[in-house]
Amino acid sequence: MNKQETFTFDKVPQSVAELQSLSEYSLDTPFKTAALAMLVLLRWESDPEGAYQLIDALRGPDPLSNYGKSFIKERLTGKTYKVKSFFAGATVENGYTPTMPLTITVSDNPYSYPDPNWATLYLKSAGADTVRPIKFRKKPSTGQWFLNDYQNLSDIRVPAADDPWA
Tens digit of pLDDT for each residue in 60-79? Predict the structure, then answer.
């Protein structure tokens, strides 16, 4: 049976200190890290460098490489609606505008834990028909789960206002 956890946030953290003040920052489950990983990506549209700092705080001892930054930039430039699509209230029709407070649900499945120190969890996008994966690595010495890879940023349906066929 799949496990689901839902997280609610009042705002997007603007600094690493704000991120670290959130209770989910204990990072003691990959579910918490997944929710925070998507929350901090919401910052990318207005401040990519600030978002990269927040992402690095979720990556533990393995900060984003230049390739990792380029990957995110390539996936989100002109398409920041992708990130918003994972939050409650976002729809194709409303341009993927989530409701406030920001709410996101993370799930696993029987294949999510191929190894005790690795996890692939899943997020539902309002613009996709299937759930999207996001990958984590556990640091055994601290028991914390760190972001390893955003595998969930592939294209989705464009917002209705931008769709010439809508």
Answer: 999 999 999 999 999 999 99
Q: How far apart are CA 125 and CA 157, in angstroms?
A: 10
Q: Which residue has the tokens 């984003």?
A: 64
Look-up: residue for tokens 């925070």? 36
Q: Is the pTM of this model over 0.90?
A: yes
Contact assessment for residue 16 and residue 50, using Cβ atoms and an 8 Å cutoff: no
Q: Please, are residues 146 and 71 in contact by the beta-carbon 8 Å criterion?
A: no
Residue 43: alpha-carbon gap to chain centroid: 11
Please give the DSSP secondary-structure letter assigned to residue 109.
Answer: -
Residues 111, 133 contacting (CB under 8 angstroms): no
19-60: per-residue pLDDT in tens? 999 999 999 999 999 999 999 999 999 999 999 999 999 999
What is the rounded distance in angstroms from the CA atom of residue 52 to the CA atom of residue 15? 11
Q: Residue holding tokens 């409701």?
A: 99
